[in-house]
Amino acid sequence: MKISSWNVNSVRARIKNINDYIKDSSPDVLLLQEIKTQNENFPNDEFKKLGYLSYVFGQKSYNGVAIISKNELNNINKSFIKDNLNQARIITAELKLKSKKLELINIYVPNGNPVDTEKYEYKKEWLKKFITNIEKKIQKNSNILIAGDFNIIPEEIDVHDFKRYENDALGRLEIRKKYRELINLGFKDVYRFKNKAKQEYTFWDYFAGSWQKNYGMRIDHFLLSNSLIENVKSIKINKKPRSKEKPSDHTPIELVII
DNA sequence: ATGGCTGAGCTACTCAGA
After folding, report:
1. Nearest CA to the C1' of B18 belongs to which residue?
2. Which of A108, A120, A191, A201 is catalytic?
3. Nearest nucleotide by C1' from A34 CA?
4. Number of C-alpha atoms within 13 angstroms, CB side, residue A220?
5. pLDDT grade, residue A99 (50/70/90)?
6. Are A194 and A232 in contact (CB under 8 A)?
7. Could you tell me what percent of chain A has a pLDDT over 90?
8. Catalytic: A55?
9. Which residues bind near strand B, taking a CB cut-off of 7 Å?
């Protein structure tokens, strides 16, 4: 079972790139973030042609998340947390993994910049609520995969120039501690668990030749329940989509799990 | 390097991203 996560920065502007990616990589499940459209304008038909069902939590202009799946998914939930600003940032589903039920949680965490504004407070509040609800969820199902755009640089190794981000909403200690808090509930950052000292990124700015210079950061993550880590076959950051014409600023991360 | 580049909504320009 291959599960991919990709912040596409508009599903409609990116439809060709997504199409190419699906044909090239053929994930069983594709988690999308920043689809930037309402449900009624989501390109369901495009995905149907490729053999996928769409589960969409859209929003006009900003945010929005979706799950694209080859097989039908159950218990779709779009209200995992109560969002103060009613932004579309979480969609969850239940996935059959052999005999186990895997709770799939697709997230798009608020950016939080600038740090001296209510945007940063919103990010902190959002993460706080999210952690609380994950704690509750674990009581019912301890097989969980949290995937998506966390907008968190976990460690210094996860960005090209940490100095520049240590007071940024993505790199601040206060925010990185939230990430640790989440992991301490019983998760592994699958990429870092499998790649102890590797420096790879999932995001590169559009400007100043960031991609060409490899000035990036690792902010898209898969957090998997400790109990399932033995089931992981591979975890890969697929840089190919970032090298294409009209790319998203993020690139997909791919988990193969048995 | 708090800039520069891209997308949505709209049709001039602002907001948001990270």
Report:
1. A111
2. A108
3. B17
4. 30
5. confident
6. yes
7. 98
8. no
9. A 7, 9-10, 12-13, 34, 36-38, 41, 60-63, 110-111, 113-115, 119, 149, 151, 164, 167-168, 170, 203, 205-208, 217, 219, 246, 249-250
Report CA(A113)–C1'(B13) in Å, whole number.
22
Task: Please write the tens of the pLDDT for every residue from A136-188.
Answer: 999 999 999 999 999 999 999 999 999 999 999 999 999 999 999 999 999 99
- Please give the Cα distance from A191 to A195 (Å, whole number): 6
Marked catalytic residue, from A21, A52, A120, A149: A149
Cα–Cα distance measured from residue A216 to residue A197, given in angstroms and rounded to the nearest whole number: 16
pLDDT at A223 over 90: yes
- All domains in chain A, ordered by first residue: 2-257 (3.60.10.10)
**Mean pLDDT, residues A58-70:** 97
Residue closest to A58 by CA, chosen among A77, A37, A76 = A37
**Which token pair is A161?**
């120039």
* Catalytic residue status for A83: no
Instruction: Count the Cβ atoms, other than its own, within 10 Å of residue A189.
Output: 22
Average pLDDT along chain A: 97
